[in-house]
Amino acid sequence: MTDVAHAAPAGHLETSTGLDSRKLAIWTFLGSECMFFASLISTYVIYRHRSLVGPFPHTAWTDPATGQVYEPIIEIPLVTVGTALLLFSSLFIVLALYGAQRGNRKMLLGWLGATICCGLFFVGMQVYEFTHFVHKGLTLQRNMFGASFFTLTGFHGTHVSIGVIWLITMFVLALRKQLPPENAINLEMAALYWHFVDVVWIIIFPVVYLMQ
Amino acid sequence: MTAHVTAAEEHAHGHPTPGTYTKVGLVLFILTALEVALYEVTFGEHAGALGDLRQVFVPMLLTLSAAKFALVAMFYMHLKQDNRLFTGVFVFPLIIAAVVILALAALMAYHMAFSKSGG
Amino acid sequence: MATTVLGHEAHGVAPAHEKTGLWSWVTTVDHKRVAILYGIGALFFFLLGGIEALLIRIQLARPDNNFVSPEFYNQLFTMHGTTMIFLAVMPMSQIFFNYIIPLMIGARDVAFPRLNAFGVWVFLLGGLFVNAGFLFNAAPDAGWFGYANLTSTQFSPGLNVDFWMFGLQILGVSSLAAAVNFFVTIINLRAPGMRLMRMPMFVWMSFITMVLLLLAFPVITVALILLMFDRFFGTHFFVPMGGGDPILWQHLFWIFGHPEVYILILPAFGIISEVLPVFSRKPLFGYAAMVFSGVFIAFLGFGVWSHHMFSTGMGPIADTFFSLATMLIAIPTGVKIFNWIGTVWGGSLQLKTPMLFALGFVAMFIMGGLSGVMHASPPADLQQTDTYFVVAHFHYVLFGGSIFGLVAGAYYWWPKMFGKLLDEGLGKAHFWLQLVGFNLTFFPMHLLGLHGMPRRVYTYPKGLGFERMNEMETVGAFVLALGFAVFLYNVWKTWRTAPPAPADPWNGATLEWSIPSPPQEWNFPEIPAVTGRDPLWEAKRQRGGPLPEPQRVSGQGIHMPAPSYWPLVTAFSLPLLFTGLMLSSKIGPWGIIVAVALLFFGIFNWLFEPSYTSIPGVRGKTGHSH
To answer: N or C: which end of chain C has fewer CB within 10 A?
Structure first.
């Protein structure tokens, strides 16, 4: 990038690249997070077929000791809905940001609200799925699939939850008229994080739920 | 202040419209539907309807996911329009991450295949 | 009413900040003070790690010794390693990252001053956390690398491993925060005209280190999480009985661990690349090659990790691949060594203390690198691994390399940071004691290892031929300690009696020597414009002589980030969180809940601190304001 300081309006912070340091910081952090999720995904891929006992993700299993039958535990339909909603939430937040950058408060609030709803639904879906799985006999301790499944999707879900809290904070700021175009960068940072969390799910969904 | 930086970037690079974003969203939805359909047709309810796809399942699935990943990164995260530095800062770790996943999976698969009971 | 919420880093408006007193240190966001805080921590923990080393050496001085128990010995070598790596060498590098990088690039501070302060508080608290185990006679004792499944609850039922596991997790947060901060700072806060290929080599090597930190630490974070789940939630990630595999720990740990050793050495490489030119009165030889070899080393550094696992039976393909990659790394490393020699060759050598340590670095690091290449061969390594040969290797690169380099940096930048030159006579005494003591301690370890003495053993029997060398090594360790005592005496004596140091005592080439010693809070009265490498030599050349001594000026109109205690408050939530986890069997989830609440409380107040809009500061010649 150019090494000459940009001519800028008075009060403008100049940087060597002309780019906002906070936006660069978020991208840097997301790069780091790629390694975090890569390690968790690797662990899942390594261990998912290493369970000594069921329940298994895609095949049924009968406990030789008790005769109890464990059906395959992965259920695609609900997760697909959650996946689709998370994808749409990325669209919604982009629209919210578009509104924020142009001072369109209605657009900002409406789409940001929609994003938050999708996020909350996704978290709710995960919580439901987790409790459902535990009910059917899959726990962290039960087998290697349980351990790696709950750890991977649990940490992803935690990231989503933090994202929801962040977005709600942005929503409150917007309500209080404290998110004018000059401050849209703050929403942009939250949006980048949110998209990243979505992108990680784009990988987790096929690897965990669709791959045999 | 900083918004002037962002605005300057936008005007220089032809910012996408809500229409574009929505179209991308539709494509993402379709790709997801294709992923699920591929699963159904290989392992699910309609397994075998298009022949035995088990060999090509993983490559096709990962291609669909990669396409979704790229669309979100390029359009929603604005990498396509933004300074290439952001792309570099994100893609470099991504490559290292992919290499690490593959290497780990391969090394551990070999190890677990050749060690006795319990791994 | 707050003008801009979630605005930029707060820039103080007009009122002078508290400059003295404890509170000004508690709330500081000044990179120079953060550096000093890292220094205080590093010094304390280096002494602690040194004492642990001396106790180890006393135990090993005689065969069949019982100076310490086997259990305590395990704690000693575990804590010595953990302390020296995470609490001494890395924080020592942080001293120079923090103090010097902003000065070298012509900035007033780092990109995120409060995040910087957060990092140092987390480090200090994390260091105390790891060592807290000593208070319960349960210091970490499973090695600094914590191999599974020794670290499982089955084989390590006590608190020892928990202190280690959670302590490292806390320290990881500090490293990641600093890495994001300096990565952005170096990219975005350079003075006008300072293109990437004009940056001082120390800044380049630090930049590469930040990239390594960002990519490597998340991996050990996950490894520690998996271990925590095994120990606290009954999972079997590393427990064979439940389907897990301890080898996964080794992989994850070394995917972090190998880049970590480059994190430990690259800053020292950078320091040497600053010291050798100045004290040879000659520019660094092969600047571009130095940059690219550094980048190459870092990139390759992610492809060699299993050379720590040659004895685990990975099979011939994996062995060959990692062996070749490891040997390949010797090439860019060799490029650097030859370029350092090329720098010194034909130069007008000023054999001051920084230069002595820098030259010592080159010699010692070559030796460490040679034993490293020997390890790169799997069949050879099968004999060397787990013996003292490895201990010799890594001490030659980490002590002969990193420590010699960091000490060179200390003597070099001491006048800039503290306004006093360290005494040359005492410095030379320190150097010779350190050089002799170091080689006496660690050279015999090569031979001991080849003769078969294993690592991590609390004693050895008579009659195996290990006695004489162990004796020598213990003597050497005490010579080292004496050298360090000389350094401490030097610090104390010059603090009290030395005259104020000039801005540029060494005829330096880089921007930090253009401002007073020590610098004023805002570093530069005007942000300089840069037209090439070695900007100060260029300026002196144009002037035809030395630059005038810079005057201390009033900082009227320069706006600096406002102090804040929220980084410290937020930092406390981390040790609190893990303490809560450790106590959860007694107090339930309440410790965790309070910690998370404190975390959110701290973060929200940090973000919403009444911040100031950016006000046009003093405009430098180039119109660059900060």
So the answer is: N
Nearest CA to A188 among C407, B5, C444, C143? B5
Does residue C624 form part of some domain? no
Residue to substitute from C4, C13, C153, C180, interface A, most A β-carbons within 10 A: C180
C235 and C198 Cβ atoms separated by less than 8 Å = no
List the single residue in B with minimal CA-CA distance to A41: B101
Question: What's the number of domains chain C is made of?
Answer: 2
Name the active-site residue from C32, C80, C251, C375: C80
What SS3 state is found at A61?
Answer: strand
CB atoms within 10 A of CB C64: 8
Q: Is C179:C214 a contact under the CB 8 Å cutoff?
A: yes
Q: How many helices (H) and strands (E) does chain A have?
A: 5, 2
Amino acid at C245: D
Give tens-digit pLDDT for C50-91. Answer: 999 999 999 999 999 999 999 999 999 999 999 999 999 999
C251 contacts in B (CB within 8 Å)?
Answer: 104, 107-108
Q: In this complex, is the C-beta atom of A10 within 8 Å of any C-beta atom belonging to chain C?
A: yes
Instruction: Please identify, among C521, C539, C563, the residue that sits at the C-terminal boundary of a domain.
Output: C563
Task: Enter the ipTM.
Answer: 0.94
C472 shares its domain with C576: no
Whether C139 and C264 map to the same domain: the answer is: yes
Report pTM.
0.94
Residue type at C448 in one-letter notation: L
Those residues with Cβ within 8 angstroms of residue C338's Cβ, 6 or more apart along the chain or in another chain: none
Which chains neighbour C (Cβ–Cβ under 8 Å, 3 or more pairs)?
A, B
Structural domain boundaries enclosing C242 = 29-547+559-563
Nearest to C240 among B85, B100, B119 (CB): B119
* Any C CB within 8 A of A135 CB: no
How is residue C398 annotated by DSSP?
I
> And the tokens for B32?
């997801």
Best residue in B71, B81, B101 for a mutation probing chain A (most A CBs within 10 Å): B101
pLDDT digits (tens, 9 = 90+) for C501-530: 999 999 999 999 999 999 999 999 999 999
Count of CB pairs separated by less than 8 Å, A with B: 155
**A21-53+74-210 homologous superfamily:** Cytochrome c oxidase, subunit III, four-helix bundle (1.20.120.80)
